[in-house]
Amino acid sequence: MSDPTTTATAAPSPAPGVTLNSAVQSCVAAFNQTLAAEHAAGHTTSAARDKAVEAFCKAMPYLTSHGNIRGYIACVGQGMLLKIIRCEEGSKLLYAAQIAMGALPRELRAVGRPGDPCKTQ
After folding, report:
1. Which stretches of the chain score pLDDT less than 50?
2. pTM score, whole prediction
3. What is the Cα–Cα distance from 117 to 113, expressed in whole angstroms?
4. Burial class, 89, CB count within 10 angstroms (exposed 0-12 / middle 13-18 / buried 19+)
């Protein structure tokens, strides 16, 4: 059993089993599936892309926990990289994530110097 004065609880994560990779994969899958469905329905490329971008954004994690915010940031970054999200819009979304992160209570960290390899958790 660990000593409560020397360790802290683990960092909160998104929903059980959700990782940064799975958050990004969900967003990209929502984009690709919606784009294909809109093309199959006969919509123009522009209209199909608009719907797909909307689906990508709706698939992003809520800004309600540290883990979710990290997933959200990963999705925004990947969206910008893939040119799904415009850089101007991405900057605003990342700023929203920064504000949300600041509004949450700080995560507890292990006692000791940051990055001290001698301390165990």
Report:
1. 1-14, 17, 121
2. 0.74
3. 9
4. middle
